[in-house]
Design brief:
The protein has helices at 2-22, 30-42, 71-76; strands at residues 47-48, 67-68, 84-88, 91-96, 101-106. The protein is α+β, with helices and mostly antiparallel strands. The protein has one domain (26-106): inner membrane protein cigr (Nuclear Transport Factor 2, Chain: A, Roll), CATH 3.10.450.160. β4 (91-96) and β5 (101-106) form a beta hairpin. It starts with a helix and ends with a strand.
Length: 107
């Protein structure tokens, strides 16, 4: 009986951890935000139009073209390397390319 309870508790913890990992957001420090914003201004990154409100957790429509993260960012901010981005309304929106879910917005 104890083994069954322990196994059930372990399974619940693992499932909860998996769900939390799926909803993880990207953390970008203030100095890193400056690097990102300077790049967007310098390189004249073309903004996209999204009719829906964009927020962390939003899934972007398929008609929004995602851009690969530039090497200049991955050198300074390795944690962004697995994401893509768009310039939306003057903000840099990081997106998980597999799910198209917004994970961070840099304004």
């Amino acid at each position: 009986m104890k083994k069954l309870i322990f196994a059930g508790a372990a399974a619940a913890l693992l499932a909860g951890g998996y769900a939390m990992a799926q909803d993880a957001t990207l953390t970008i420090e203030p100095a890193q935000r400056t690097i990102i914003k300077q790049y967007v201004v310098k390189e004249h990154v073309k903004p996209v139009t999204v009719k829906e409100n964009v927020a962390v957790g939003t899934v972007l429509p398929a008609n929004v073209t995602l851009q690969p993260v530039p090497d200049a960012w991955t050198t300074e901010i390795p944690s962004v390397s697995s994401y893509e981005y768009v310039d939306w309304d003057g903000k840099v929106v990081f997106v998980d390319p597999k799910t198209r879910k917004v994970v961070q917005i840099v304004d």
